[in-house]
Amino acid sequence: MNLTKQDRAARTRQKLIEAAAIVFDRRGYEATTLSEIATAAGTTKGAIYFHFRNKDDLAQIILAEQQQTEELALRPQPVKLQELVDSGMVFAERLRTDPLVRASVRLSLDQQATGIDRGGVFRAWRDANLAILQEAQERGELRCHVDLLATAELFVGTFAGLQQMSQLLSDYDDLPDRVTVLLTHLMPSIAVPPVLGVLDMCAQRGAHLIAAAKPGGGGDSVVVEPAAAQG
């Protein structure tokens, strides 16, 4: 296969993933057919089978987007708890703007999607949160009573409920604001006062992080420097 054909195949594959995301988000897993995906992508079912084994394969790939798109925008922060905040704010913004992420959430919460590992997304986010909290504890950022695993799971579970509510009431438009409310209630119960005082939990932070991650986006502007705020 020459380079031109490779490029064409890669573009077709991505087009199919994006079309599948739109259809999954609109119709749900069970009601979605490969014919609908092919029509939405402007191609054939044969093209789908060239790139993917079946509908489950497509759905699993879309579920993986939930993690990958967040990781692109997240940066290490001097205050470790800021990274926990940022993961929620970036996810909230992606849900507002990215069809792939919207579809991944629809699939992860779809009880009829029995052919895919829906729990993997929740476990991965819980584990990522737990790793952040463990390092935050080592740095002395957490109150002494904090149960790390319970807190990691609470954040994931509460966010899942908030996003469903936001989807129903505003099609995700108010999700960043809802996540800010969640964080302003959660963080005082786990963060020591000096750290709490420097956390940026504004609803616009997710959009700023995503913009900063793009070429020429000026990523330094979204790094929280604790010394300046604590001084």
From TrEMBL:
Annotated ranges, domain HTH tetR-type: 10-70
Highest taxon of the lineage: Bacteria
InterPro entries registered for this protein in UniProt: ArpA-like (IPR047923), Homeodomain-like_sf (IPR009057), HTH-type_TetR-like_transc_reg (IPR050109), HTH_TetR (IPR001647), Tet_transcr_reg_TetR-rel_C_sf (IPR036271)
Keyword Transcription included in the entry's annotation: yes
Keywords per UniProt: DNA-binding, Transcription, Transcription regulation
Pfam families: TetR_N (PF00440)
DNA-binding region, residue intervals: 33-52
Record protein name field: ScbR family autoregulator-binding transcription factor
